[in-house]
Amino acid sequence: MTFIDPETGAFGGLGHAIGDGKSGKPLRLKAGTVTGVLLDGIERGKPGEPGELKGMLRPGGIGVVTSNTEYGVFGRLSDVPTGEALPVARPEEVREGSATILCTLKNGSVGEYEVELGDLSSKAGCARCFSVRVTDPALLELTGGIVRGMSGSPILQDGRLVGAVTHVTVSDPSRGYGVFLESMLRAMDGGRA
């Protein structure tokens, strides 16, 4: 999950579509249920072999998925978790350089890990709006960088929510891509980013 609107329970996640395995196009969504996940392992990524987070779905739904778009999946949670709301960075406010990502990797707790953003896109509606390079030694040791299951991990910079991790570079799992949060918000509202 990338973001939750604390007033409505609306959420967005992944930063990319759940796609058809053959065409890569977004699957048509009839209905979807949001569940929790119990992580029980990490397959570390290495060049040529992206790793992945391993886990099991928890029983019971905590919300519904209402749309699957090229900029993520969206829906509404039954119970809105409490926490500090962060401002959203507009694309022109994002800068190349240090940032952090949030992800749950062990013990069910969210960790914050250092990354570097680069190759910022200036065009609206980009699917890979910037590059992400993992620099955090703990994350590199644990996962090798970006692994499957980290899509949608929120990216923070200067106290603002910038976007989400979307892809890993298979030849170098310490590198990947991200999408601006603004693109996700536009897709959630039914407009193209």
Give a quick rundown of the structure.
With 193 residues, the chain is mostly beta strands. Helix content is 8%, strand content 43%.
Features:
193 residues, 6-stranded antiparallel beta barrel, mainly beta, globular, 13 strands
- Please indicate the percent range of residues in DSSP E strands (runs of 2 or more): 35-45%
Assign an overall shape.
globular
Secondary structure tally: strands: 13
Give average pLDDT, whole number.
90
Q: Please give the domain count.
A: 1
Give me the CATH superfamily.
Answer: Trypsin-like serine proteases
The largest sheet, given as strand count, sense and whether it forms a barrel, is: 6 strands, antiparallel, barrel
Low-confidence stretches: none
Enumerate how many helices there are, as a single number.
2
Q: What structural class do helix, strand and pairing data support?
A: mainly beta
* Strand order, sheet with most strands: 8-9-10-13-12-11
C-alpha Rg (nearest Å) = 16 Å
The percent of residues in helical segments reads: under 10%
Instruction: Identify the CATH architecture.
Output: Beta Barrel
Q: What is the CATH first-level class name?
A: Mainly Beta
Order of helices and strands: EEEEEEEEEEHEEEH
CATH fold category name: Thrombin, subunit H
Summarize the structure in words.
The structure is a single chain. The longest helix is centred in the C-terminal third of the chain and has 8 residues, at 181-188. This protein has 193 residues and is mainly beta. The strands form 3 sheets. Strands 8-9-10-13-12-11 form a 6-stranded antiparallel beta barrel. The protein contains 2 helices and 13 strands; from the N terminus they run ββββββββββαβββα. The chain is globular, with a radius of gyration of 16 Å. It has a single domain, classed as Trypsin-like serine proteases (Thrombin, subunit H). The protein has helices at residues 137-143, 181-188, and strands spanning 3-4, 10-13, 32-34, 37-43, 52-57, 63-69, 72-77, 97-106, 109-118, 130-134, 154-157, 160-169, 172-180.
